[in-house]
Amino acid sequence: MKEQSLSSAEPLWRKNIELPQFDKLQQSVKTDVCIVGGGITGITTAYLLAKEGVKVTLIDADNILNGTTGHTTAKITEQHGLVYDELIKNLGKEVALNYYQAAKEANDFIKNTIQQQDISCGYEEQDAYLYTNDYYYVDKIENEFNAYNKLNINAELVDTLPIQIPIKKGLVMPGQAQFHPLKYLHFLLRDAINNGLEVYEHTVAMEVERNKHTTVITKDDHRITCNYVVSASHFPFHDSEGLYFTRMYAERSYVIAGKTDTKVKGMYINVESATRSVRSVTIDNEDYILIAGENHRAGQGKSSIGHYEELQAFAKTYFDVSHIAYRWSAQDLTTLDKLPYIGPITDGDPSILIATGYRKWGMTNGTLAAHVLASYIMKHENNRYRELLSPSRFKADPMVKKLFTVNANTAKEFIKGKFNFTGDTKVDELNQDEATITHNKGSRIGVYKDKQDNIYSVDTTCTHLGCEVNWNQEDRTWDCPCHGSRFNYTGEVIEGPAKQPLKKVSLDD
Ligand code: FES
């Protein structure tokens, strides 16, 4: 299948929705709280704080709601894959129970807010299913069910699904939900603005300076002086001494939305590889089925088109899909123990708060993060999830093993990149909208030719820690296989931890 047979890359959530636009920050400002990142974490935190009369300024490097939140599948559930059995075994029953309760409270907040404020955002209760079609995973599903029983989570084992996908075993958690994330967050944003929130788009936070006050310094050298900084930008834009790039890994995943006449009930995700996550959406009286999956380490693996084709084949096999109307991809981070990092960036730095590592369960974890971060800022001492989610936690087992695996993969990619020198196509044979790798005076150079025949060449050495970036044709980006930084074809950063652009080079040098 050729690329032309697929829809162009755009999330379904953008269909017929008008989001407000905001100016770039043009001057230095003072505020109580500076939030960096306009996704579910940033906007919900702003909503909670602005309601309490806190002066909040939110900045986003791009447009708001255009990062991972704008590319989600928007399931609202406490069923976060196979997690509770592992948490009980590795970290104990209390930790597992706390995580479940934290997730449930976050999801209840979403539900109650939608009901109380009468937000029209397609909120629907649905049962959530974990399933496997591989005998090897049947035990794992049964162990997860036993873990649910230990934690008093209402669930049932099943041998069939209400949809046509064959299974060996499934586990259903009733009373979960799905919604339209942008419609919901648009409401929270408007409410926060009515309570004094200021928003600036296309404003890139580069660094944090700490004197009497904390100051965020933007790429244009404007200063946002504040008492607290909230890094809600996915990868913390400021690492301090947290070394987060050694403690998380980035994965990309893919979503397609197929047009259907048969609305699917329930939300589904399998537990084996390759991942297949399923839910329905109705927008403007039209039904779609969302299929997500094909997760892989960012910057590694086959072309994006190949991943979409796999999802499309799955959709056509099991669902009544007339055509694929939308497709998009997203990147998310996983921590060493699978729990998000939410709280002060380091123990000695209470004015810089971070939220990251949601492991693709961003609707729940982003909402949870907003509550935990707001409790720090409001100095509410009674938030019982602080210790559970503290970014400074470290339990030797299994983190040491995972730390080794994450960084061994990074080292392998570092070395591989240095020897993987040239692309298949020579620069003077490049077609429009195509890229290749060449070398010049000992440097590995990435070259992209756009649709107007303009050539853009960059040194492919990632400005974070020196791994070699790879071309992503789907998004026209250079992606780093080590810690997930992404750069556009001109070399500008679109996703950290890198802060500096790729070095532009001239092929004539
Ligand atoms: Fe760390 Fe590229 S993101 S080396």
Distance between the termini: 39 Å
- Which whole number gives the mean pLDDT? 89
How would you sum up the global shape?
globular
What is the CATH domain class of the domain at 397-509? Answer: Mainly Beta
What is the percentage of strand-forming residues?
Answer: 25-35%
Looking at CATH, which topology of the domain at 397-509 would you report?
Answer: Rieske Iron-sulfur Protein
Number of extended strands: 26
Structural category: alpha+beta
Q: Number of helical segments?
A: 9
Largest beta sheet, briefly? 9 strands, mixed
Helix content: 25-40%
Instruction: Supply Rg.
Output: 22 Å
How would you summarize this macromolecular structure in one to three sentences?
By secondary structure, this protein is an alpha+beta fold.
Fold and architecture overview:
With 509 residues, the protein is of the alpha+beta class. It has a domain at 397-509: Rieske [2Fe-2S] iron-sulphur domain (Rieske Iron-sulfur Protein, 3-layer Sandwich), CATH 2.102.10. It contains 9 helices and 26 strands. The strands form 5 sheets. Strands 4, 5, 6, 7, 13, 14, 15, 16 and 17 form a 9-stranded mixed beta sheet that branches. A 6-stranded mixed beta sheet has the order 8-3-2-12-19-18, covered by helices on one side. The longest helix has 25 residues, at 93-117. The chain is globular. The two termini are 39 Å apart. The model is unreliable at 1-5 (pLDDT under 50). FE2/S2 (inorganic) cluster is lined by residues 245, 462, 464-467, 480, 482-485, 497-498. Pfam families: DAO, Rieske. This is Rieske [2Fe-2S] iron-sulfur protein. Keywords: 2Fe-2S, Disulfide bond, Iron, Iron-sulfur, Metal-binding.
